[in-house]
Amino acid sequence: QSVLTQPPSVSGTPGQRVTISCSGSSSNIGRNYVFWYQQVPGTAPKVLIYNKNQRPSGVPDRFSASASGNSATLAISGLRSEDEAHYYCASWDDSLSGSWVFGGGTRLAVL
Amino acid sequence: EVQLLESGGGLVQPGGSLRLSCVASGFTFSNYAMIWVRQAPGQGLEWVSAISASGSSTYYGDSVTGRFTISRDNSNNTLYLQMNSLRAEDTALYYCAKDQTPYCAGADYWGQGTLVTVSS
Questions:
Q1: Contact status of B27 with chain A (Cβ, < 8 Å)
Q2: DSSP B91
Q3: Are B109 and A45 in contact (CB under 8 A)?
Q4: How confident is the model at residue A108, as a pLDDT?
Q5: What is the DSSP letter of A93?
Q6: Per-residue pLDDT for A54 more than 90?
Q7: Is there a contact between A56 and B108 if contact means CB atoms under 8 Å apart?
Q8: pLDDT tens, residue by residue, B1-28
């Protein structure tokens, strides 16, 4: 059971906009940075979003994120076939001695 | 260009030990916290351990506390993970990742991983 909750899967057609939710608590998303990672099967995770809504250079502006309260959302607009991958949210958790927590991952299918 | 190169994985029997290494380049290693994350076959990402930039603060996931030890050598730009009392459930691809801060906040770069298989 992951500390952060994501839907197991989402899908969309090319050109559509999809969103992936990530629900946490006041000890993680509610007070710390939120990261979003994309993992294409067989490859290492790649950061899409850091500090809740910042995009590294090279990541298309089709990817955006927001956070409110104890939840965060990743939005992908203008969906492309190459966006088919697993997406993970993550955040530092201040409870107990501290830990970095992940969501269980969301598989995005581009139909 | 940030590069993280893990090594040290392999096949080990239950109860055995392994030491993973991660050699970093392309950034000032001593300025950033570092993280180990693992991924069991077909599963999601699981945080294993983290260490602050200076090495003075270390953190462990519940499943590895007391068995794994994270350390770093800032003079040689190398991160380590000493893994003892290995179990079948430790079988995974282990990723080294660079934090974006000197303390532990989250990873902005990942290595390609090294595979650890625990089996008799």
A1: no
A2: -
A3: no
A4: 97
A5: E
A6: no
A7: yes
A8: 999 999 999 999 999 999 999 999 999 9
DSSP string for B20-89: EEEEEESS-GGGS-EEEEEE-TT--EEEEEEE-SSSS-EEE-TTTTTTEEEEEETTTTEEEEEE-S--GG
Residues B44, A105: C-beta atoms closer than 8 Å: yes
**pLDDT per position as a tens digit, A95-105:** 877 889 999 99
Please give the C-alpha separations between residue B3 and each of A1, B22, B23, B29, B77, in angstroms, as whole numbers. Answer: 32, 10, 8, 11, 11
- Name the token pair of A49: 């979003």
Side chain identity at residue B17, one-letter code: S
Question: How is residue B10 written in tokens?
Answer: 């392999």
List CB contacts (< 8 A) between A99 and chain B: 47, 59, 61-62
Asked if residue A23 has pLDDT above 90, the reply is: yes
In this structure, what token pair is assigned to residue A59?
């990541």
Q: Are the beta carbons of B99 and B105 closer than 8 angstroms?
A: yes
Q: Which one-letter amino acid corresponds to residue A6?
A: Q
**Alpha carbons B12 and B88: distance in angstroms, whole number:** 10
Which residue of B45, B111, B112 is in closest CB contact with A88?
B45
Q: From CA B12, how far away is CA A96, in angstroms rounded?
A: 32
Contact of B52 with B102, CB cutoff 8 Å: yes
Q: Please say whether the beta carbons of A75 and A19 come within 8 A.
A: yes
For residue A68, what are the contacts with CB-CB under 8 A and spacing of at least 6? none
Tokens of A58: 């090279």
